[in-house]
Specification:
The chain is of the alpha+beta class and 157 residues long. The chain has a single domain, classed as Nuclear Transport Factor 2, Chain: A (Roll), CATH 3.10.450. It contains six helices and six strands, in the order H-H-E-E-H-E-E-E-E-H-H-H. Helix 3 packs across helix 6. The longest helix is centred in the C-terminal third of the chain and has 22 residues. The N and C termini lie far apart (34 Å). This is Nuclear transport factor 2 family protein. Pfam families: SnoaL_2.
C-alpha cells in the first residue's frame, strides 16, 4: 500500500513541476477522470488535458498533502493550485480533494472535487461571481473547457 502513496506523490510532484509526461506515466492506458470543469474524460483526453494545462499554466504553484489510503485500491489527497487563468488574467486559488483508484501500480480512476461556483468567481471575475451558481453558466464553462481540450488535441495529438 505504500506503493500507492508513492504513485500519488510522484503524480503531484510532477504536477508541481508542470511535467505532464511524468504525470501521465502514473495513469493506466484506460484512465477515467472527472472534475467539475471538464466533466468525464477517458484515456487520451485525460492525458491531453494535463498536457494542455501544464503548457498553459502561468504564475503556477501547487501544494499537496494528506495522502490517505482508504484500502488497497482507493486513496484521497488534498491539493491546492495557484495560477493565473489564461482566458481572463485573473488569479485563482483552487482547493481540491482528489479521489483515486490504483491497480497494479497505476491510477485507473481519478476524480477531483471542488466547488465550481467558487472557481468561476475567481477565474471569471464579476460574471462568475454573479452567475457562477447558475446551471446555464456552469454548462457554458464546461462546454468551453471541453471545446478547448478538443481543439488542443486536434492541433497537438
Amino acid at each position: 500500500m505504500e506503493a500507492n502513496k508513492e504513485i500519488i506523490a510522484k503524480f503531484y510532484t510532477a504536477f508541481q513541476q508542470k511535467d505532464a509526461a511524468t504525470m501521465n506515466s502514473c495513469y493506466s492506458e484506460d484512465i477515467v477522470f472527472s472534475d467539475p470543469v471538464f466533466m468525464l474524460l477517458e484515456g487520451d483526453q485525460v492525458r491531453a488535458m494535463w498536457q494542455m494545462l501544464c503548457e498553459n499554466a502561468k504564475d503556477f504553484s501547487l501544494s499537496f498533502s494528506n495522502i490517505q489510503l482508504i484500502d488497497h485500491e482507493y486513496a484521497t489527497c488534498n491539493w491546492t493550485a495557484n495560477y493565473i487563468f489564461s482566458k481572463t488574467g485573473n488569479k485563482v486559488q483552487n482547493n481540491v480533494k482528489a479521489f483515486m483508484r490504483i491497480k497494479d501500480g497505476k491510477i485507473i480512476e481519478h476524480s477531483d472535487a471542488f466547488r465550481l461556483s467558487t472557481w468561476m468567481g475567481q477565474a471569471l471575475g464579476i460574471p462568475g461571481k454573479l452567475f457562477g451558481w447558475t446551471g446555464f453558466m456552469k454548462r457554458k464553462v464546461q462546454l468551453s473547457a471541453k471545446k478547448s481540450l478538443l481543439d488542443y488535441m486536434e492541433k497537438n495529438i
